[in-house]
Amino acid sequence: MKIKKNSVVAITYTLKNDGGEILDSSVGKESLYYLHGNGNLVIGLEEELENKAKGDKFSVAVPAEKGYGNVDPKLVQTVPLSAFGTNKVEVGMQFHAEGQGGPVVVTISEVIGDQVKVDGNHPLAGVTLNFDIIVDEVREATAEEIAHGHVHGPGGHHHH
Ligand code: ZN
After folding, report:
1. Which CATH architecture has domain 7-68+125-159?
2. Taking Cα atoms as reference points, which of 58, 27, 26 lies closest to residue 45?
3. What is the pLDDT of residues 138-160, one digit of tens each?
């Protein structure tokens, strides 16, 4: 069967940036299971998976607009080092902060003297996502999976 809305799909994936650096990969691990057409993967990847079938292999370059979005400069703020109290502050450290729409993950992107730049953009914002994909399995979703918007059973997760 071909992948369509509400198919349960298992994929093996490798994600690289434009420099060829591997950012994430499921090779040698369990396949990633997801419910197609429900926004569980970035839209640019779901579009490419549409109508593919078990055994298909492909590569796709997903632009940032169809991935994790473009970098929003408004989400980068400079705060005084003293705001961190006695906590260690290093570039690359991530922590939770209160955003307008609830908790967000922010990353320390730069430390200049006693000023700290914190970035609330997704770590992959502005990045072209180069995926190598193998479709491992396609099946129909159960009514319960469709109602919940995610996959149950092997490779899936459940919560009550
Ligand atoms: Zn569920």
Report:
1. Roll (3.10)
2. 58
3. 999 999 999 999 999 766 666 55
